[in-house]
Amino acid sequence: xxxxxxxxxxxxxxGLFKELAPDELDRIAALTRQVRxxxxxxxxxxxxxxxxxxxxxxxxxxxxxxxDRGDEKVVDVLGPGQSFGEAVMFxxxxxxxxxQALVDSLLLYVQREAVFDELERDPRFARRMIAGxxxxxxxxxxxxxxxxxxxxxxxxxxxxxxxCSPSATQDGGIEVTLPTxxxxxxxxxxxxxxxxxxxxxDLAAEGLIEVRxxxxxxxxxxxxxxxxx
Length: 229
Known about the structure:
Elements: H1 5-12, H2 22-30, E1 32-37, E2 42-44, E3 52-58, E4 61-66, E5 72-78, E6 83-84, H3 86-91, E7 98-101, E8 105-111, H4 112-121, H5 123-149, H6 152-162, E9 166-168, E10 174-177, H7 182-188, H8 193-205, E11 209-212, E12 215-218, H9 221-225
Antiparallel strand pairs: 1-8, 2-7, 3-6, 3-8, 4-5, 4-7, 9-10, 10-12, 11-12
Helix pairs in contact: 1-2, 4-5, 7-8
C-alpha cells in the first residue's frame, strides 16, 4: 500500500523514523493518521486505553493529571518533533495522564500494530524506541530531583536559563519567552501560580529580571545564575 504523501513526509522528519527505508515508512504510514486538535481539546483522558502513540508535527501538548484534591499537576509540555504515549502502549496499560492541546496542533497517531510489526522486523528500530523512552525517563528523573532538592526560586532560575529559547538583547542580557501560560509553567515546576508570580516579583525587585507578560528580560545572566536567596 502506498502511504499518503503528507503523512509519509511528516514521518521522515521525526527522529524515530528518519533512518527507515521507503518501504518501511510506507508500512508505518499505512497505519498512521493525522490528528488535528484545536486549542484546549483533549486528545485522551487518564484511564483511556492506549492503542498507539502520538508525534507532534506542530503545536503544543500538555500532559497532566488531577490530584485527589482537585489540583492539576502538569507533567510535561511537549512541542514539535516530540512524542508521547509510547510507554503505556508497550505495557498495554491505560494512559496515566490526560493530554490536551495548548494551541491548535497537528499530530501523527501511530497505531500500536505498526510499531510492534516494525520492532519484529528491525532491531535498529527497537534501539531507537528504547533510546527515546530512556531520554524521557532521564528528563523525568531530573525533574523529580529538582522538585526534591531545589527551592522554588532555584527551579524558576533554572527554567529561565535552560528551559526556554533565549534571544540576545542590545545591552548584553538575554530575553526568554515562556512557552505557555504562567499557570502551566508554575504547575510544571511544582509551584502554585501565586508562589510562581511572587518569586518572579522578588527576582524583579532584586533587579535580576524584568517581566513583560510572557517575556522575561534577564539583564545579567551570571548574577541570576549565582543568586542564592
